[in-house]
Amino acid sequence: MQHASHERDAWGSRIGFVLAAAGSAVGLGNIWRFPYVTGQNGGAAFVVLYILFVLLIGMPVMVAEVVVGRHARRNPVGAFRRIAPKGLWYLVGFLGVATGIGILSYYSVIAGWTFGYFIKTLFGAFSRTLTPEESIEIFNRFVSHPAMSIGYLFVFLLLTTIVVMGGISSGIERWVKILMPLLLALLVILTLRSVTLEGARKGLEFYLKPDFSKIDGGAVAMALGQALFSLSLGMGAMITYGSYLGKRENIIVSAGWVCFFDTLVAVIAGFLIFPALFSMGLDPAGGPGLVFIVLPTIFPEIPLGTFFGTGFFLLLAVAALTSTISLLEVTVAYMVDEKKWRRKPAALFMSSLAFVLGIPAALSFGGVAWLSRLPRIGLGFLDLMNISLGNYSLTLGALLIAIFVGYKWGIAGVRAEVEEGGNVFFFRKIWTFLIRFICPVAIFAIFVYIVVTKNYF
């Protein structure tokens, strides 16, 4: 394999980093998952908890990841090796790289569905009134079609690979400067349409009036899990993106903007989904099928419904693409830094690996019967991947990063890196207390909760 000879790439500007990192964080977790989890856990009360956890847990861990990446100027494996050359901390980096490629493989399957539904809606598949049963039938037929599922998986990974092959400033940064404004514009346009629907007021009340009687241990765990999952923490994405950040940039301000944009998109998504649901008298706790089963029954009932539906699935596809780009970049950075591969072969190899790993996930919705319900496990292949990687690995990764930064590397090293170039370490004492005591305890509690209860986020 040819060896890399060029200098390490870097973001051209702070806005490039912020948009790319926010794009990594903003994904199906915000627009697809956040509304139905909110619906199942008491509406506005859950939103309050979620925002609290983003501030108290998500933001400190994000700062920790970005600091590790920028200090080491390496991928997750190389970063831990550089800061702690002795011991086994580099295995945390390997956990991040493995989690990244694994999540990319099954996440791209669902991302492919969003692209497929964008095409279906564009060509009028949901232009007539559908019963819920008909909508379920359409969805089941779509996801159980082997060639279609694998085909859309391939298309989505191909788009992701093209962007990542271009590098940081010429590839990822250039594209996120187009994709993120497009995502925000689509989100705002669709939300304005949703909140002006007849009967939308009930949805807004549900979303804005907290019902704290619905908050129990499960809702607390879900809110914290959603905060970690939504911000792309625990899998090395922010370490990798941080490694391309200039030494003059203020890490605290940059991380703050990423958390702000990510939370903003999730909150606005609620304003898009709930008014539309309540205007049709539908259940806000509709579960994962909310987007692909419930919403297509709404489109024909509202003026400009086909436009609304097409725009919505395009929004989902763009959000998913900004996330898959970061997932692939984690693994590509590892191959470039540690194995000295050139970027393009590394991107092609890793995306091909994700494609091969993604095929069983794509076939686990009826394409291959035993993959739909694995023997002895009782779960579908995609569900198993999501639980093992999207829950256990992410949570463990975030826990170990908090412990590493708070205790192994230490606050003095973090402070020196943050204050590089004369920057101010805002809220240093609060951050230190959170990363050393609150974050590890809270994340460990989440880990124990999902192991014991098997209630996954």
List keywords for this structure.
about 450 residues; mainly alpha; Hydantoin permease; about 0% strand; disordered N terminus
Question: What can you see in these coordinates?
Answer:
With 457 residues, the protein is mainly alpha-helical. The chain has one domain: Hydantoin permease (Orthogonal Bundle), CATH 1.10.4160. Helix content is 74%, strand content 0%. It contains 19 helices and no strands. It has helices spanning 14-25, 28-40, 44-72, 76-83, 90-122, 132-143, 146-165, 168-195, 200-208, 217-230, 237-242, 251-279, 295-298, 305-338, 343-362, 369-372, 381-409, 411-418, 428-453. Helix 9 (200-208) crosses helix 12. The longest helix has 34 residues, at 305-338. Mean pLDDT is 90; it is low at 1-6.
Task: Produce the secondary structure layout.
Layout: H1 14-25, H2 28-40, H3 44-72, H4 76-83, H5 90-122, H6 132-143, H7 146-165, H8 168-195, H9 200-208, H10 217-230, H11 237-242, H12 251-279, H13 295-298, H14 305-338, H15 343-362, H16 369-372, H17 381-409, H18 411-418, H19 428-453
Helix pairs in contact: 1-8, 1-12, 1-14, 2-10, 2-12, 3-4, 3-10, 3-12, 3-17, 3-19, 4-5, 5-7, 5-14, 5-15, 5-17, 7-8, 7-14, 7-15, 8-12, 8-14, 9-12, 14-15, 17-18, 17-19
